[in-house]
Amino acid sequence: MTGTLLTAIDIGTSKICALVAQTTPSGFEILGLGIVPARGVRRGVVIDLEEATASIQEAVDKAERLAGYEIGTAFVNLSGVHIKSFNSNGVVGISGNRGIDSDDIDRALDAASAIAVPPNREIVHIVPRGFVVDEQAGVRSPMGMHGFRLEVEAHIVTAAKNVVQNITKCVENAGVVVEGFLVNSLASAEICLNATEREMGVVLCDIGSGTTDIAIYIDGNVWYTSVLEVGGQHITNDISHGLHIPADVAEQIKLQFGYARRADINPGETFNLRVIGEPDLVTYKRADLVEIIEARVEEIFLLVLQEIKRSGFDTLLPAGIVITGGTAQLGGIREVASHVMRLPARIAEPRDLLGLTDNLKGPAFSSAVGLLNWAGRETHAEAMRPKRKDSVGGGLRFPKASGFWDFLKRLAP
Questions:
Q1: Angle separating helix axes 404-411 and 102-112, nearest 10 degrees
Q2: Is the predicted pLDDT of residue 99 greater than 60, yes or no?
Q3: Is 162 exposed, middle or buried (0-12, 13-18, 19+ CB in 10 A)?
């Protein structure tokens, strides 16, 4: 698939990032990018169609100018507390003395997804967790195996239909066709998690501006996803209220002087700010700032811990927690996470990128680069996917981020 053009649009609370890349034998090379402040979007939900469309259009235009290509289609991320997930099983019989084929797997996934979904929701991902052939459990790839009964354990992710429709409308109004959606946590996991962590059991925690996206991986695949309505913006709001300063100033000093552990800083350290209504610079203790940040960061990880316990998989995570997203740039956040959750913790960000990468450094761009990585995987999987006789528009029977072919690609070394 060398030379294939990939396009992705990461729509976040604080920024919108459009990327154009070209596949290479070792991955992909960034040809163009456009990063603009997000307008009209709050915590993964469009709140102003016109403003959101304008922001997306601006990001797309910047990426096109740098790349020298027009973006016609793109893969887009989904986030927000409207994202819900559950696990489901599907069972089908295998007729005749033949090996299991892709149609059998599709039928099993069909059976797993044959559940009552409210009319205001739609399935966006169906991810196979594992298969059972007759009585043989723990099968990862049943293709070609002989058996009379095929069972699949699937992780199903749903989203609010109106949210998906509004995002689609904004992107299309910006002149781009949505080729596929991927939820934010799975996008970040694409670039942040290694194979060993996925196998052992790990939780991916993407702390953005407005939300915290969680994905639990066990035995090589995703078992649980969730979104919490808390993020770096809440830290900024706490600083604004605690120090009685405007939100934009609070964001500035969070980035410049912020830290997540009060025990690690010099208690006598200070910084000066020019505050509206004060003729002179006002001096603040950095310890007061860090105390506010530490309290909110601890609360975020306590909420993450509660969500993990709610999943029932809290004892199956020896690889610990991998933290990414813009808020992961806070110094000391790894130590706070490890202390609160009693798990090993590390910070992850995109690495080994080629091309125009200077502005894509840091954990804030994990979801954008992960989305691009998945776009390459899905584009290749679609090219390799057999066409069904009853196929329409490429023969996709399931949302693009999920099917069996994408699952098989994950197993490749």
A1: 110
A2: yes
A3: middle
CA pair distance 395, 386, nearest whole angstrom: 8
For 106, counting Cβ atoms within 10 Å of its Cβ (0-12 exposed, 13-18 middle, 19+ buried), the class is middle
Give SS3 for 348: coil
Query: Which pair of structure tokens corresponds to residue 104?
Result: 């059998």
Phi, psi of 118 (to 5 degrees): -55, 150
pLDDT band at 95 (very low <50, low <70, confident <90, very high): confident
Banded model confidence at residue 408, pLDDT cuts 50, 70, 90: very low
Task: Write down the pTM of the prediction.
Answer: 0.87
- Tens digits of residue pLDDT in 186-241: 999 999 999 999 999 999 999 999 999 999 999 999 999 999 999 999 999 999 99
Q: Which residues pair with 121 in a beta bridge?
A: 160
The length of the chain is 413
| Residue indicated by tokens 């009685």 | 244
Dist CA 348 CA 13 (whole Å): 20
Measured CA to CA in angstroms, residue 168 lies from 78, 172, 210 at distances of: 10, 6, 20
The C-alpha atoms of residue 311 and residue 307 are separated, in whole angstroms, by 6
Indicate the SS3 state at residue 67: helix
Q: What percent of the chain has pLDDT over 70?
A: 91
Q: How far is Cα 309 from Cα 312, in angstroms, rounded to an integer? A: 5
Q: Using the structure block, give the residue that is written with the tokens 């070792």.
A: 26
133 strand-pairing partners = 136, 150
Specify the pairing of strand 321-324 against strand 345-347: parallel
Q: Are 220 and 140 in contact (CB under 8 A)?
A: yes
Query: 233, 250, 248: which is closest to 288 by C-alpha?
Result: 250
Order of all β-strands in the sheet with 136-139: 84-93, 149-160, 121-133, 136-139
